[in-house]
């Protein structure tokens, strides 16, 4: 066993042993209290390839990735880096060995400039020992030129879009001259054009011999960018294949261990009267003159690029950011929705885009998370909560939604993304909403949970709920919706019927 | 000695994950401290620390005022806030309530026409003044969105100013026996325990409690779930102010006089008791039972030092260390949970 520091020294000297595999992992096991997260897992990363890790949430790919990045230490098994045994003790240690990870939650400091963020801890100094900002900005500009990123190194990170922050993260990883890059769902917040740019960068890096571990839930990305992929299921390694050898259905079968016949079970359900009618809804400086109706049983898809104002419309509808103009009518009667409290009173429900920021009460348990909205007006007598009834109904709901957990006293942060999402949907279903607003209901969750959520939404529509569904995933919008509303730069550019809504039409309206 | 208990992490029984009440740890710390004093007592002073009912009674009496405040502070901290004003509110409400609790036999009554009133009047006035201070805190925080630290810091300074201005710095004495009665004997302890019980129930079994935890866990998610955060925060700070007011009344009754300097630093003792009791300063976590134990720990510490004839200076130094240690343990525990 060679210590990381020795390894780093060997690496610096240039005498790095050549081997076909940048990284090999054999027989790795990792246990957490009560769960075996990884069991006898193996994985190999070839030089100059993009290797996708696939699997449902909870399959173990995040754990493997964290082991590769030095965040977790395996209980058993060995890791070889360029053919040499290695033990990574920390993320910094991994970085020094040329392994860089780009986290799903971006780790940049908002009040510092791009250049300061990239070179943190490694700032070029002038001869007085002060940070040499000119040199730092020059180095950043060089780096950006190499990656074809067009950003001013002196901008503060807080002024950047999520996509641009992602670019900065990637540039930072590259700046360490890493030869293993780990990307955790890098496209989950990006628009199509940004994804294309990211892929160009990834291909460049690959051509330079860098190996990229790429975690994604999106099947089409796999075929577009990955050379190989490995599938995991329930902490076990299932197999590795070249992505050119398999079909989408093959992969899904490997991931879930069962056949998924249809991804989007759109069923025709009876469409009733107009439930929600929105006229000229405006939020100054964000969106203008948004008008639409949703009928009982109807699913209205809302498409548009990131930044088009989709989520803002949802937030305004629900009273999170009250409208500056326009009217909202329910059952033909105008209503005022100036707070989420008012929205709930009108039997609206809103599954927000960001599970962690605006959805989960992470440190509280599942039941406490599920009951919080319904306690507004039910299960409470004289201020006291009817614990028995609410516990029973939460448990019923969790069972119905198939939330995977031993009991509802588990903290919600211990659940996988898909199960968190189901619990949050349960939170709203307990209120028996008539209008359900879903903002990216399946973002970052696995195929199995996705299909379940789709089925559930269809089921709700059947019972007469009016659904507004925002999604960045075109197949989801097209597959689920009765009609698709498209937004571009704060305006509605069109509402398409199911029959006329095609990927091309929607993109045309979204990009204009 | 406090960290010892941490080492006793049960070897994770696999199947039924029946969690032990979080207060157990703190309770063991309390027992541990008491036993250490007991041992030191026999070694250095030649007598028992625990086998002295009189000492234990005094000890509980001394901290019951802190305990009353801490019950309010716990709720504030669960929402992710802080209340620095409670000590000053104690001083202010002690002055106000004492000023209408004077006996007609006292020659220099502040309001000669308002003497010999039934005790309920000064009690109600003290509680009401505290309530108003709390509402002001809450409104400031909810409406202007300034950090609770700043809002209550302002109240801390101003309330102290008001208590000095009220009588131009003169103490208020000559209180009626009826009023003084609530400060005698075991009464302050009873007030403390009743208050603790009420809010223990409120936090665990009422909507008020559920919302308090939800706001502390994630204010944005709580808001989207339909909780009116602004009005709820006003309630929480109002309750904290009201309890500080009650503590002021009890303080005046115990001392049978009121002075503008009463309650100085009580807010810090109350925060310390809360934090030692396992309430997390990041919000969303905490229980009244823990706070009660935390309060008793503070009492045992102080009374133990006195018993061992440790210099008052050392007492303060060690108290500071213990507060920091409690938070360090909390942070460490949170980290362990995360894995």
TrEMBL record, chain A:
Pfam families the UniProt entry points to: ABC_tran
Swiss-Prot/TrEMBL GO biological process terms: monosaccharide transmembrane transport
Localization terms from the record: Cell inner membrane; Cell membrane
GO cellular component entries: plasma membrane
Catalytic activity: D-galactose(out) + ATP + H2O = D-galactose(in) + ADP + phosphate + H(+)
Main location: membrane
Membrane topology, as annotated: Peripheral membrane protein
Domain of life assignment: Bacteria
SUPFAM superfamilies membership: P-loop containing nucleoside triphosphate hydrolases
Domain ABC transporter, chain residue ranges per copy: 23-259, 269-509
InterPro entries given in the database record: AAA+_ATPase, ABC_carbohydrate_import_ATPase, ABC_transporter-like_ATP-bd, ABC_transporter-like_CS, P-loop_NTPase
Function: Part of an ABC transporter complex involved in carbohydrate import. Could be involved in ribose, galactose and/or methyl galactoside import. Responsible for energy coupling to the transport system.
Protein name: Ribose/galactose/methyl galactoside import ATP-binding protein
Source organism per UniProt: Xaviernesmea oryzae
Lineage: Bacteria, Pseudomonadati, Pseudomonadota, Alphaproteobacteria, Hyphomicrobiales
Automatic annotation (TrEMBL), chain B:
Localisation: Cell membrane
TM ranges: 24-44, 56-78, 117-136, 148-166, 186-203, 288-307
GO molecular function, one term: transmembrane transporter activity
InterPro entries: ABC_transp_permease
Membrane association type: Multi-pass membrane protein
Keywords: Cell inner membrane, Cell membrane, Membrane, Transmembrane, Transmembrane helix, Transport
Gene Ontology CC annotation, any one: plasma membrane
Pfam families, per the entry: BPD_transp_2 (PF02653)
Protein name: ABC transporter
